[in-house]
């Protein structure tokens, strides 16, 4: 971490986007390729190894880390209409960060947020918007060559913590954290993270674990699971 080159964990793969069941379609596309965007190459390093012909290999089915299904202490708020995110606020981490849209590279991976701005998060633009039904995916760097970045302390978040996202339509989607989990990259539970949901949910994703200088890769991913708990005007 610190001054080392790092990436952000974020979705990649083929996607159709859209609302409702469309969230499942793009989620299943993500499962084929995995996570980890390395900002230096602006390509995705998959959670599972690629096959020799350049296509995605199968994601490992077994994980040494028990999977915990996120649970909610409070009822979810009704889903909102589609509107792009503008600003992310996490009071516990003193984070206030603008958004950039993330698309796919020609290779099918997700382009990373620009490394010049350490206080910037990226939203996968072909998935649900924050507040819309389904799992909205937000990725951020844990660090860059310039130093610590926006999601450096993401792992300290706890259930019940709020996450606020101001949207382009002038509304604020307030999410409540359900769980914070760490997964090995070689056994990432794609369906748990990206699978379709009956309500509006949020995934905050970044790198964690040991850093390999040879591969410029972290060993794990931290994922914050949250659900939409309320809305208000900006």
List keywords for this structure.
single chain, 234 residues, mainly beta, Sortase, Chain: A, eight-stranded mixed β-barrel, three-stranded antiparallel beta sheet, disordered N terminus
Structural class: mainly beta
Question: Main beta sheet: strand number and arrangement?
Answer: 8 strands, mixed, barrel
CATH-assigned homologous superfamily: Sortase
CATH class group:
Mainly Beta
Radius of gyration: 16 Å
What is the first-to-last residue Cα distance?
A: 34 Å
Largest sheet: spatial strand order: 4-5-6-7-12-13-11-10
SS strand fraction = 35-45%
**Care to count the β-strands?**
13
Write up what this structure looks like.
It is a single chain. It contains two helices and 13 strands. Helix content is 7%, strand content 36%. It has 234 residues and is mostly beta strands. It starts with 6 loop residues before the first strand and ends with a strand. The relative contact order is 0.24. A hairpin with a 4-residue loop joins strand 12 and strand 13.
């Amino acid at each position: 971490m610190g001054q080392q080159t790092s990436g952000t964990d974020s979705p990649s793969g083929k996607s159709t986007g859209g609302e409702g069941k469309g969230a499942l379609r793009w989620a299943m596309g993500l499962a084929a390729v995995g996570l980890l965007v390395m900002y230096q190459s602006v390509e995705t390093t998959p959670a599972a190894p690629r096959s020799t012909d350049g296509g995605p290999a199968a994601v490992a089915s077994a994980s040494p880390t028990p999977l915990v299904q996120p649970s909610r202490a409070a009822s979810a708020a009704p889903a909102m209409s589609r509107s792009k995110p503008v600003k992310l606020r996490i009071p516990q981490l003193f984070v206030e960060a603008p958004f950039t849209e993330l698309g796919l590279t020609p290779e099918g991976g997700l382009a990373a947020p620009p490394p010049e701005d350490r206080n910037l998060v990226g939203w996968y633009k072909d998935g649900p918007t924050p507040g819309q039904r389904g799992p909205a995916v937000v990725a951020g760097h844990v660090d860059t060559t310039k130093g610590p970045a926006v999601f450096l302390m993401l792992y300290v978040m706890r259930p019940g913590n709020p996450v606020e996202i101001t949207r382009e339509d002038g509304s604020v989607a307030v999410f409540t954290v359900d769980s914070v989990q760490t997964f090995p990259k070689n056994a990432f539970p794609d369906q748990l993270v990206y699978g379709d949901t009956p309500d509006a949910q949020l995934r905050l994703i970044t790198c964690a674990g040991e850093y390999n200088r040879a591969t410029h890769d972290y060993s794990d991913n931290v994922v914050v699971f949250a659900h939409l708990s309320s809305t208000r005007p900006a």
